[in-house]
Amino acid sequence: MSDALRRILAVDFGDSRTGLAATDWTGSITVPLPRIDERDPDALVRAIAEVVADRETQVVVLGVPLTVDGVVGDRARRTLAFRDKLVKGLPCPVETVDESHSTDEAHERLKQGGLKASKRKQLADSIAALVILERFRSQRR
Fold first, then answer.
1. How far apart are CA 60 and CA 78, in angstroms?
2. Does the residue 41 lie in any domain?
3. Is the pLDDT reported for residue 100 higher than 80?
4. Residue 78: beta bridge partners?
5. Structural domain tally of the chain?
6. Is residue 1 part of a domain?
7. What CA–CA distance (Å, rounded) separates 41 from 37?
8. Measured between alpha carbons, how far is residue 91 from residues 46, 56, 59, 88 in Å?
9. What pTM was computed for the model?
10. What CATH number corresponds to the domain at position 110?
């Protein structure tokens, strides 16, 4: 990965809701993006490819939910199968990062921000993607 890598899109893959977060054009600010409500993996790849094109993304970071022991469990296997679809459907590299507890962290951040439970549920997937993006960036430092 190049040090000039600035345009990153993070994906918090879910069976029915997928959260997205990205860096701005300069790579200095991370922002949550609207989640994608899509159950069909091929349609989801196409929707993510549109975001990649619109944002001129240089790399996609997919969160993989490892177990507490760092093992690839059932959920992580489904996510890695989705990664294979992303690799085939996107014009940029796809990296992975451990996303363990990112959704819990997202809910806690939103709770600390004073949001009610119903609003937190709407935003949690994209905030989890933001956590994934932050983890990826901190690992690269």
1. 17
2. yes
3. no
4. none
5. 1
6. no
7. 11
8. 12, 10, 9, 8
9. 0.89
10. 3.30.420.140
**Which amino acid is located at 6 in the chain?**
R
Q: Which domain holds residue 95?
A: 8-140
Is residue 115 within 8 A of residue 77, CB to CB? The reply is no
Rounded to a whole number of angstroms, the CA Rg of the chain reads 14
The per-residue pLDDT for 71 is: 80
Domain-located, residue 81: yes
pLDDT-derived band at 37, boundaries 50, 70, 90: very high
Using pLDDT thresholds of 50, 70 and 90, give the confidence band for residue 90.
very high
Strand order in the sheet with 17-23: 30-37, 17-23, 8-12, 59-64, 94-98
Q: In the structure, what pLDDT confidence band is assigned to residue 2 with cuts at 50, 70 and 90?
A: very low
Give one DSSP letter per residue of 34-77, joined into a string.
EEEE---HHHHHHHHHHHHHHHT-SEEEEEE---TTS---HHHH
- Residue 120 in domain: yes
Tokens of 95: 């990296």
